[in-house]
Design a protein that fits this description.
It is built from eight helices and ten strands. The protein is α+β, with helices and mostly antiparallel strands. It is elongated, with a radius of gyration of 20 Å.
Length: 274
């Protein structure tokens, strides 16, 4: 599933190409996504509008327009957002097509159809529930270890699950939670409320380091993820524990273990993460 670095990679790859462009036509080839695509509202709020900026909130990409309206896109489990030349044959999973005034097409492709494509008016944006209920951005300067320490007091939830709660902190999904906990030397099953302030500082530093490294390397491509030009990410070659069950830890040579926690595979080194 695309996480924060993957969405940020797409935002950056589109940031030099979409602002100033106008959406001249919208084609919905398949409306049955996680939330049915409202083609009428897309045309009402987006068609004929000029792109002014691209932002990201958690794992949501937000495309802003000169009218004040916005296009919210979530990639779900397998979504891609591709900028392609006109006339390129459609993939069977190209569900929503945005034609631009420079003749390029922005295509939302999603084989599993868990993604989201929603148009919002200016007055709707701040109150849109999926955005209004989110925690702070982990890479923001004011997102500090003290916040996570205070928020975790009394919590018996495993720290990995705590980090993946988007109401607590956004964008730290399964891959990057596992990698951050390894760097911080914290076992993923340790109760969040039993982690000291000093160890939360180590973990916050690790989260920021892992996310920044992943963004620099274009995200992690394990199966479907591509940037807007169709390029895969490279962070998967730097993974320390995720997906490495049965392989040797790069630090201590102990065998990496995996355990299913709350339905998600959790990878860790039993020696480095006591």
């Amino acid at each position: 599933m695309p996480e924060l670095p993957e969405v940020e990679t797409i935002r950056r790859s589109l940031l030099t190409r979409l602002p100033g462009r106008t959406i001249i036509e919208i084609q919905v080839r398949e409306a049955r996504l996680r939330v049915p695509v409202d083609e009428e509202k897309l045309n009402e709020l987006i068609a004929g509008r000029r792109v002014t900026d691209l932002a990201r909130r958690a794992k949501y990409l937000i495309i802003h327009f000169d009218s004040g309206s916005a296009l919210i896109i979530h990639l779900g489990m397998s979504g891609q957002l591709l900028l392609v030349p006109p006339g390129l044959p459609f993939d069977k999973h190209d569900h929503v097509i945005f034609s631009l005034d420079d003749r390029l097409e922005l295509r939302f492709r999603d084989p599993r159809r868990f993604g989201l494509v929603v148009a919002l008016g200016e007055a709707e944006l701040n109150d849109y529930p999926p955005l209004s209920q989110l925690g702070p951005e982990p890479l923001a300067a004011d997102c500090k270890a003290d916040y996570l320490f205070e928020r975790s007091r009394g919590s018996k939830k495993p720290v990995k699950n705590f980090l993946m709660d988007q109401r607590v902190i956004v964008g730290v999904g399964n891959i990057y939670a596992s990698e951050s906990l390894f760097l911080a030397g914290i076992h993923p099953l340790k109760p969040a409320g039993r982690i000291s302030r000093a160890r939360w500082q180590r973990l916050m530093d690790a989260i920021k380091r892992v996310l920044r490294d992943a963004i620099r390397q274009g995200g992690t491509t394990l199966s479907d993820f591509r940037d807007s030009d169709g390029n895969a990410g490279y962070f998967q070659v730097a993974l320390r524990v995720y997906g490495r069950k049965g392989e040797s830890c790069h630090t201590c040579q102990t065998m990496i273990r995996a355990q299913v926690v709350a339905g998600r595979s959790t990878f860790f080194c039993p020696k480095c993460q006591r």
